[in-house]
């Protein structure tokens, strides 16, 4: 604006950018929490709210991108200041993706709400609590520029991967027990996958905090433990009753669970 | 390096960054193609290669990030030059994610290769051809700085979403027909989802090209048509034989397909 009367210092502008990220983080956190609640309570109204509110995160990302590019052009920053701005671009992109996953969980909860309650649904709030606490720690670590806290949160993502892998195998088993479980369990598996991806984006943010504060990439190497992609569960291994297995033509040859 | 003898012009440095993106794009494209081939041919060796080669894309992203930050600090660019550098950060992040999805498709193909051939597997090469052609167009649009080509590719993502939604419903139906289809079809659904996500990242790149060339965000608004998240298929709607449906305790009350 040509008529801008307030002249801010560069430090104030960086602080403002950082506050925008913190606010966007708060909205993303609330979206994840509400999406998980919508699944647990089969709350269609809440799910609809989450889907609508996703546009707020898109708007935050656009604002943060525009502000970051403006500061790069105007202030020609170096060192830590430059890292602040580059980090804000990266973190906003991760938070926007987290919002997309929350909206997709809400969307799938609408399909689930039409169906009988599926047992593995209890695992969603369990994954939800873990992912919410990882997100909270990562966002606190950002506000406090606390690398140790960021690394601690980054390490907890492994629990989430393990929870996801066991839920994946469990879901396959329920589907084999009763075909009425197939649609709800498939949506639950995708919801769990979304939660696992939210965790991955939270670890991306933790890595960005390390780069921001220390100036170098995070050198730790945690092997990615997505066991679910290898999971094979056969109808017999799933303990399908003998007569039913016979009716379905299941034979020993297909029993190659790993 | 203090002993650097070659002094490059800024224009040369930007061209080098742009070439790095083009190379990374080529590797990502090859990874997607190889992953789809590994599924279609049940080729375990090729799948393993794809999983191993993913590290190359991670290395490209690190190099591009480092080079972009170096140029921001050293050259303090403005306008189009600044957009070139910010765009390279964004595109590298999208290509790295595309690589992750290709590696996950390859990983799941290892589980699939142990199982009987599942019918919807033919849909994977079909989605593969579409996503490969969208990626090719987007990468050409980047090299040629061709906004119209980028928008045309961006619009074709809708076909991919439609293909994914129909594959999702088809997969649910096969699972209901025979529990032996449950594990392979679940992996196929996740592969199809990965392909749909690769398409989303390709459209992100198309949007970045618009920003890079025109200087403003892409104002078009294509409604996101992920119908699969709402999909409900009941065992009866899936045409489960009457006697079997009875044995499984399926009744009309659960027949709420939409």
Automatic annotation (TrEMBL), chains A, B:
The entry describes its oligomerization and partners as: Homodimer.
- This protein's species is Azospirillum griseum
Q: Which UniProt keywords apply?
A: Cytoplasm, Phosphate transport, Transport
Q: Which GO terms describe its biological process?
A: intracellular phosphate ion homeostasis; negative regulation of phosphate metabolic process; phosphate ion transport
SUPFAM superfamilies associated with the record: PhoU-like
Domain PhoU spans what residues?
Answer: 21-108, 124-208
Query: Mind telling me which Gene3D superfamilies this protein's record contains?
Result: Phosphate transport system protein phou homolog 2, domain 2
Q: Into which family does the record put it?
A: Belongs to the PhoU family.
Q: What is this protein called?
A: Phosphate-specific transport system accessory protein PhoU homolog
PANTHER family to which the protein is assigned, alphabetical: PHOSPHATE-SPECIFIC TRANSPORT SYSTEM ACCESSORY PROTEIN PHOU
Protein's UniProt keywords contain Cytoplasm: yes
Annotated Gene Ontology cellular component terms: cytoplasm
What is this protein for, i.e. what is its function? Plays a role in the regulation of phosphate uptake.
Q: Where in the cell is it found?
A: Cytoplasm
């Amino acid at each position: 604006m040509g008529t801008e009367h307030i002249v801010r210092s560069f430090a104030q502008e960086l602080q403002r950018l950082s506050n925008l990220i913190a606010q966007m983080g708060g909205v993303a956190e609330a979206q994840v929490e509400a999406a998980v609640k919508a699944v647990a309570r089969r709350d269609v109204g809440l799910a609809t709210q989450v889907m609508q509110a996703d546009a707020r995160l898109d708007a935050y990302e656009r604002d943060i991108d525009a502000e970051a590019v403006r500061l790069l052009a105007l202030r020609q920053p170096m060192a830590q200041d430059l890292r602040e701005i580059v980090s804000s671009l990266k973190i906003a992109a991760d938070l926007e993706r987290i919002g997309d996953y929350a909206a997709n969980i809400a969307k799938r909860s609408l399909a689930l709400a039409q169906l009988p309650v599926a047992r593995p649904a209890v695992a969603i709030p369990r994954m939800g609590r873990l992912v919410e606490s990882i997100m909270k720690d990562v966002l606190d670590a950002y506000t406090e520029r606390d690398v140790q806290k960021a690394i601690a949160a980054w390490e907890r993502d492994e629990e989430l991967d393990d929870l996801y892998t066991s839920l994946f195998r469990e879901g396959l088993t329920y589907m084999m027990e009763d075909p009425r479980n197939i649609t709800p369990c498939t949506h639950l598996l995708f919801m769990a996958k979304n939660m696992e991806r939210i965790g991955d984006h939270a670890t991306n943010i933790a890595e960005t905090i390390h780069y921001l504060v220390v100036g170098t990439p995070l050198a730790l190497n945690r092997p990615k433990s997505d066991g679910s992609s290898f999971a094979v569960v056969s109808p017999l291994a799933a303990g399908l009753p003998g007569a039913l297995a016979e009716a379905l033509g299941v034979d020993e040859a297909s029993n190659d669970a790993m």
